[in-house]
Design goal:
This is V-type proton ATPase subunit C. This protein is of the alpha+beta class and 382 residues long. It contains ten helices and ten strands. A four-stranded antiparallel sheet has the order 2-9-1-10, with helices on both faces. A four-stranded antiparallel sheet has the order 6-7-5-8, with helices on one face. A two-stranded antiparallel sheet has the order 3-4.
Length: 382
């Protein structure tokens, strides 16, 4: 299961024992896999500032998660590979996401703990916003090349009635630069080859005898050339249509054909050239964004724990990975062990629609202990 619960409870003697008891109970009953989650001693500041910060961090948490999911999704789009293969490239600090989370260590160099919480939060917010902006810019440039290339490539597949003929026709298939004669391309169903050979010369006046030749074939039809006088072209087209022979609207233009081939070659090269650097950027910034997100979670636990349990700062944080079939039982066990922290919450009497500043109750579940969910199921595509 990819869902984790990051919880904290007051760190006095009895509750430290309660955490250990909870760890013992959940492990023995196979309810969850637990690990310590170490949050350093951060600068508290004023309680008023913490109340405002709590709301700010809640919004930043949601934004950061959305950026991470966009990065993961786009890595999948760029790699054009299986979900498992893409998942292997979603790393944080060089390790898989679960390993990073369960062995979390605060990055002292990037987020110095001597700075005010507001400064650290603003730094994280600026970092996430910059990654999001850069992603939009890079994705737009790459998608433009990829879209144009796909558009050209789509033209090279399909039936002879609709596909581009750039890679099929040759100069020698046509009578060119003639004031009187023109070569047309006709799509003939496979079951009508004999009828075409028998009738094409008589479909109209002034058709050059023995001028037809099949130059391409697919599963349904063949593409034939036929040469005739320009002045009977429209009459020939009408007669051909009546016999279920379809004349393609195509006139040989060497410059245009060359230009289309060159564009296809150029776009293919551009996509290949951008692929490596873009994928490297995505992987590096996915790692940075994920690391920042977990630091945001740690900040939320710290701020909420101080607001709930008061000063001096003294709480214990732990990461629980609930077993898929035991989430309800695990929640019941936690409520039983920590119900003394908030009798109303543990009995389900708290109104979760209330909006009390600093307690982050609105629109989310509330428990007698601090609890935030971390879902590592961030790659959502087939």
């Amino acid at each position: 299961m990819s869902e984790f619960w990051l919880i904290s409870t007051p760190g006095d003697k009895s509750n430290l024992q309660a955490l250990e008891r909870m760890n013992t109970v959940t492990s023995k009953s196979n309810l969850s896999t637990n690990s310590r989650f170490v949050i350093p001693d951060l600068k508290v500041g004023t309680l008023d500032a913490l109340v405002g910060l709590s709301d700010e961090l809640g919004k930043l948490d949601i934004f950061a998660e959305s950026v991470i999911k966009k990065l993961a999704q786009y890595i999948g789009d760029v790699m054009e590979d299986s979900k498992d293969k893409v998942q292997e490239n979603l790393l944080a600090n060089g390790v898989d996401l679960m390993t990073y989370l369960t062995r979390f260590e605060w990055d002292m160099a990037k987020y110095p703990i001597k700075q005010p919480l507001k400064t650290i939060t603003e730094s994280l917010s600026k970092q996430m916003s910059q990654i999001d902006t850069d992603l939009k810019s890079r994705a737009s440039a790459y998608n433009n090349i990829k879209g144009n290339l796909q558009s050209l490539e789509r033209k090279t597949v399909g039936s002879l009635l609709t596909r581009t003929l750039t890679d099929i026709v040759k100069r020698e298939d046509f009578v060119l630069n003639s004031e009187y004669l023109i070569t047309l391309l006709v799509v003939v169903p496979k079951n009508s080859y004999a009828a075409w050979q028998k009738t094409y010369e008589s479909l109209s006046d002034m058709v050059v005898p023995r001028s037809t030749k099949m130059i391409a074939e697919d599963a349904e039809a063949g593409l034939f050339t036929v040469t005739l006088f320009r002045k009977v072209m429209e009459d020939f087209k009408n007669k051909a249509r009546q016999n279920k022979f379809i004349v393609r609207e195509f006139y040989f233009d060497e410059k245009e054909l060359k230009s289309e081939k060159e564009e296809l070659t150029r776009l293919t090269a551009d996509k290949k050239q951008q692929y490596g650097p873009l994928l490297r950027w995505l992987k590096v910034n996915f790692s940075e964004a994920f690391i920042a997100w977990i630091h945001i979670k740690a900040l939320r636990v710290f701020v909420e724990s101080v607001l709930r349990y008061g000063l001096p700062v003294n709480f214990q944080a732990m990461l629980l990975q609930a077993n898929k079939k035991s989430t309800k039982r695990l929640r019941d066990v936690l409520n039983a062990i920590f119900k003394h922290l908030d009798e109303a919450a543990s009995s389900g009497m708290v109104d979760n629609t209330m909006d009390i500043p600093g307690l982050q109750l609105a629109n989310q579940e509330y428990y007698p202990y601090v609890c935030y969910k971390i879902d590592l199921h961030i790659l959502d595509y087939n």
